[in-house]
Amino acid sequence: MRYTPQFILLPCLLFACSKAPEAEKKAAAAVSSPVKESALTTVTLTPEAEKNLGIRTVTVGSQEVTGTLEMGGDVQAEPGQAASITAPMKGILALQKGSPIPQTGRTVKKGEVLYRLTILPAEGDLANNNQELEMRRVQLETARNKANRMRQLLKDGAVSERAKQEAEAELAMAQKAYQDAVGKRELLQGGTGQSANQSVFVIKAPLDGVIQRVYAGQSQTVAAGAPLLDIAGLNPVWVRVPVYMGDLERINLNQPAQVRTLAATGRQAVSEAMPVSTPVASGSTAALTDIFYEIKNTDKSFYPGQKVMVSLPTKGKADGMVVPYAAIVYDINGGEWVYVQTGPQVYQRQRVQVQSILRQQAVISKGVEAGMRVVTDGAAELFGTEFGGGK
Q1: Beta partners for 201?
Q2: Best CATH choice for the domain 82-232 from the list 2.40.50.100, 3.40.50.10470, 3.40.50.360, 3.50.30.50
Q3: What is the pLDDT of residues 200-218, one digit of tens each?
């Protein structure tokens, strides 16, 4: 029993050693100044910076707005303002000296020279050109000898002056026939001499517009009727909007629509398109029908074939929050934002949802309330300041 204290002390020592590390643990770090999430989208300016950025604000208001239906559309040339240019006859294409090369996207003016077409003779003439040239050479030599002989006989008094003139006329006709044969030879060999220049057809632009497609190029031999290029007029242009037949009754076909490009952001203007009085074209089993609008495209913002977004007016009206379209800024992912003034020189970026765009006004369905003040002038500059690309 004298060994019992040793066995009692051993568990006590083990328990004391196991408790020592827990006593040495430090308390967790405490954040003294936590950053609120709302502060991440807040920009605070100095009065001088606010003035330099040209910041102006407006109050968000509620007003009665026309309902809209967002649809995709495509731009087309106005009927009668598109042309497909073809080769009038077989020939070799060449450019007018000093003229740019016709290429897709280049604008042209009515009457501008596009190509010079060197006309090639018919296939039958080309096959017989060698025989024709030899025949014309023999005729020229014969006529020349006859004219020389008549001149000599006239000096000897053996013929009259009239006989000499007739011989010289035959010589002139033979020379002309021989030159024509030589010209055909030059055309056959692709020549560009004086004879070839006498058989050139100038192809000009029939209207003001833009080149949509190019089918043939310089030095290319084209057949009669071969397509060369397509030209479409730019002002005005039509917008074709395919609409589901079930939505057709909701649309007010007598009111203008709002058209914008797919890349339109911020201050970029929204174009007003007037409805075109055309009959609704669709079959009895068709699910879609096409309606058309006309745009005065004086600034050449739209091109035939371009895809656009169209806000079609509906027959109903409702109250909505309205801000100037210039107040909307877009992030890299297409997200829509506005800057709300929360205090003097303090602006908070707030996500919104744009329901529709009416002329230069944006109807907001979510994100702002009546009475808020949002930035219009300087919104893009404020966005750049927040992300390091502003003034």
Answers
A1: 117
A2: 2.40.50.100
A3: 888 999 998 899 899 998 8
